[in-house]
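Input sequence (335 aa), recorded before submission:
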Amino acid sequence: HRRDIQGRMRLVSRGNAKQVLRGTYRNRSVIVKGSSANHTRAKLGDAVHLELVYLEALRGAPGVPELLGAWREGEHVWYAVADGGRPIGTAGQPGKGAKATELSSEFIELARHKPLKLARALLRCFRSWASAGFLLDDFKAQQFTLDGRGDIYLVDGPSLLRAFPVGEAVYRATSHHLLFRGKLAKYGGKLKEATGAEERRKYAAKVAKFRAQLDALGEEKNNLPPPPSDCATNADYPSTKAHHACSVEGDCEAGARGAPESAGLCRAGACVAVGPWTHVFDTASRPWLLPGIVTYAEDASAKKVLDRIMAKARLADPAKRPTFDAMLAEVERHI
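Predicted structure, token format:
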């Protein structure tokens, strides 16, 4: 609970959905997050709740901050995690790709002298959540931190992919869309079976009510559905966020590339889904991830190892890219 946090907390950042503070709990530094003022009515399944799903579902996995506790203050949801250190870098404004990410001095120092160990920490972090069916499309260096032990953490909860078990379970348990569609089907059936005028008016009003509620929800956020079963062009598959897909010049910084399926990929009449293979591509295609390590590494042999791994990870066909397990095995073979 908040009363367990010692002394005054210091503001780290404040965004549209969340505010982030740093405090002390049992003489250790902790990060405290809560829903922002305009999200005081955050419902189950919204941003802060889904971060708790990420933290609890992957508790103990490398690169996932340790969840220490959570509580409510009125309509605000708060939680505390172990402090995972400082961001690995600072990126420009999302969608304004001209400004290059500035890597932290700590990241650069490790890249110079321990490039393969840093690459291992990075890949272990990505493997933990990407392989479990999470997708990070708010893709920028500030989402990752580096601690004093050389471990890397994803500190901003990723979206869920509904095609994977955790995403499907959360969708069924929390989706307002699913709830209203169920109500719509229920009362639509009763309307068809109604015989009297008063009964028809009653169920017609129910149908109108739930249709309006469903329309008002807009698109489901943070829980991404599987792609359409068929397609004619790449445009038939929705793109991830612009600064993740990098499909238009200026969306991402120089040297950054998005996986083909991130921008929408139709192959042989079927949509190619995003998944762990997408983030395999990402780790090898952002100047602030594996390429950033190669840029600063002083060991020529380590550079060659990482260059070989990245070349395979950047293959256009997702089926031909290595898994995170394979990438890690190759890195560890040379440590």
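Checked by second reader. Residues 68 and 81 are 5 Å apart (CA to CA).
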